[in-house]
Design goal:
This protein is an alpha/beta fold and about 280 residues long. It has helices at about 10-20, 40-50, 80-85, 100, 120-125, 125-140, 155-165, 195-200, 205-215, 225-235, and strands at about 5, 25-30, 55-60, 90-95, 145-150, 170-175, 240-245, 260-270, 275-280. Helix 6 (about 125-140) crosses helix 7 (about 155-165) and helix 9 packs antiparallel against helix 10 (about 225-235). The longest helix has 15 residues, at about 125-140.
């Protein structure tokens, strides 16, 4: 097992990638905030299948957290992450200090695209501004051929795809399916916050999405009816619901009549932990 090369300095990381690409190698990058689980590993594996070299970034980005959110307690497990990345053959890790990404006097931010306005954009004002800014900066520091993201963060992946298109960034975006626990819970770094009872109750999210898929597959096209069915499953189990909607998958608009393909999206709190999940409806 070869240990990945660890970079803290943006210039050194960029030079490493450019040297590989100049040698004709295809480079993939998987941006993460660490606390890696099997879902992240699946993204690294996907990148390795299509690339000669794979880079994982580990950076807990402060600009995408609101003051009341969980930045301070977000799990930071670098040594475990490094070992896990080594096991799956990651070539390099970019893990910069905050001051390397946001030096003194930093004041330039990316205005996110229109698909960032609803759902997470409404519940978490400023979140996608921070996401777009850090992702664009990572793409500048790690100028890879392809970046691999997971579909669990459906709106985030859509926002990033639109940013790449709108700003003509020379990178391919590859979005891979959500990885789930055997009982259906979507893998998330925040699952470690859940108590055993909360972990059980969190299964309501995947059950509600399955019910939405069943209703639509059975011919239901009323958005209100499908969303009510999702809430009927969620409300007895979760502590609050931020949204449980059926939307058009490219605009995230929510017309009264469901036209396929569509996507069902949920954000809810179980205990103090905020969880998100989604399911394509085809």
């Amino acid at each position: 097992m070869t240990e990945p090369t660890i970079f803290r300095d943006p210039d050194a990381m960029r030079n490493w990638v450019l040297e590989r690409r100049a040698a004709g190698e295809r480079v993939g990058v998987v941006p993460t905030m660490g606390a890696l689980h099997a879902g992240h590993v699946s993204l690294i594996t996907a990148a390795r299948e299509t690339c000669d070299r794979t880079v994982a970034t580990i950076f807990v980005n402060p600009t995408q957290f609101a003051p009341h959110e969980d930045l301070a307690k977000y799990p930071r497990t670098f040594e475990q992450d490094r070992a896990r990345l080594a096991e799956v053959g990651t070539d390099a890790i970019f893990a910069p200090p905050v001051e390397a990404m946001y030096p003194a006097g930093f004041s330039t931010y990316v205005e996110p695209p229109s698909v960032a306005a609803s759902l997470e954009g409404t519940i978490r004002p400023g979140h996608f501004r921070g996401v777009c800014t850090v992702v664009l900066k990572l793409f500048q520091i790690v100028p890879a051929d392809v970046a691999v993201f997971g579909a669990k963060d459906f709106q985030q992946a859509l926002v990033i795809r639109r940013m790449v298109r709108d700003l003509a960034l020379p990178i391919e975006i590859d979005v891979r399916p959500t990885v789930r626990e055997p009982d259906g819970l979507a893998m998330s770094s925040r699952n470690v916050y859940l108590s055993p009872d909360e972990r059980r109750r969190a299964l309501a999210l995947s059950r509600a999405l399955a019910e939405a898929a069943h209703r639509v597959a059975s011919g239901e096209r009323s958005r209100t009816a499908v969303e009510q069915a999702m809430r009927a499953i969620l409300e007895p189990e979760v502590d609050s619901i931020d949204y449980a909607v059926v939307a058009e998958p490219e605009s995230l608009e929510c017309p009264a009549r469901i036209e396929l393909p569509a996507v069902a999206l949920i954000a809810a709190r179980v205990g103090s932990t905020r969880l998100i999940d989604n399911r394509r409806l085809d």
